[in-house]
Amino acid sequence: MRKTSVILLVAGIVAGLAGLGLMPRQPRLTTQTTGDADLAAAVRAAVDDPSGYRGLAVALIDGGQIRTAGLGDRDRAGNPVRPDTPFEIGSVPKVLTGMLLAHQAGVGAVRPDDTLGATWPAITGTAGEVTLAELASHRAGLPRIVLDSVTDWARTTWANYAAGNPYAGQDVDRVRAAANDQTPGDGRGEVSYSNLGMAVLGQAIAADAGTGYPELLDRELLTPLGMTATIQVTSAAALPAERAEGTIGSGRTPDPWIGTGYAPAGLGYWSTVEDLARLVAATAAGTAPGAEARDPRFDDTDRTRIGYGWLTTRYGDHEITWHNGATGGFSSYVGFDRATGRGVVVLGNTDMGVEPVGLRLLGVPREEAGTASPARPTWIGVGIGLLFTFIGGLTLIGTARRPVADRLTVLSGGVWALVYPALGHQLGGWSAVPGWIWPLGLVASGVGLALVVQRWRTLPLNGAARPWLRVAATAGSLAVAIALAAALLS
């Protein structure tokens, strides 16, 4: 018994030490600084906790002047963030789509009260009855995103937690088909955020103009504003050079979010703070094409109203017009105070929200600006992380101690005692759970594996009443474990 206890203790210590070396580690904003040093200092003062951020790029528009700064690292290699570093900007282009509607309405190409079906005749279902203005203000009663099947749902869920691209394969035809299958819900007329709605709005305006959405946006908004660094990426090969590298809470680098159909909702767009500062400055001044999209038209909450894409929220004495964005490993915020003309752009290369930083730079008091949090729902990530970290090792310990255990059973359990912690490492919400908890799960796996090694010679190969069923179950279990391991490594 003493020898067994020593072996198990040593196995647990070795596994725990290995776990400490491999445990999930939150990124942390480093001391590197480029650009305007005073602005960088103000940004650091606005950041509550540098944990959760890796790099930030910031622009501040004040008194007609644009100042920019980069803080921290753009990638794992430690290269610094610069004001011209490209970031994935998530939903920020929704304001561009709203402005495109306002601009096209201003030149008489469309009217805000035109229906979707009249603007894009390819939409033949009941969703064609909603108006362009309803789509631009998220009041069309359409869902956030459409998942057509169990396969779509499973793929999207896995992508969200395994750092994949949840919009893979969502081209213009898929978006059109999804819209044709929708019936506006009872919530039509009330604000309910819809990526699908903004996507079909942009595609409809482009179809009416006889061109593609990226081409129309470039021609009517980006080129007049001089936004040459704002691009729509349609393949991994087209990603911008010297770009920021995104990071999720587990520390993994996610795949870029690419899908042409949802481009008007922001999918696949990359930009810099320098470029977005031009947008914010011109919109705040009212000189940007379609700048009237900023004007609040409809109530969202008791302190927030929405225009075409742009939201306007009261924070005490401040009224901020804004939009944010979040992808698998990036966060973004653009906003301005029309009363003062002050504007801000904040881009981050983790999934930690940057909204409080932007609000504080606009003069919103700290307590009203709130605190930063990860973009993904942390309670799901917390549950996944804790369950997968411990279940494999604890289950193996129980299996190895059973009098009726056999080699096939403990072989399968041993593989899962390694695969489960790997899943917990990659899918867990380690921005909300201390990373040092993960090695404790590896301790359980190490103890379980040591018990298996000790008992291996005394165990029968297959002790089941129906041996063929045990063989089939073991083979299936190992196949699933191998497939999951391969997915994590891909």
UniProtKB/TrEMBL annotation:
Residues 46-352 form the Beta-lactamase-related domain. The keyword Chloroplast does not apply. Gene3D superfamilies: DD-peptidase/beta-lactamase superfamily (3.40.710.10). The keyword Transmembrane helix applies. Keywords: Membrane, Transmembrane, Transmembrane helix. The chain crosses the membrane at residues 379-397, 404-423, 435-456, 468-489. It comes from the Bacteria. This is Beta-lactamase-related domain-containing protein. It comes from Micromonospora andamanensis.
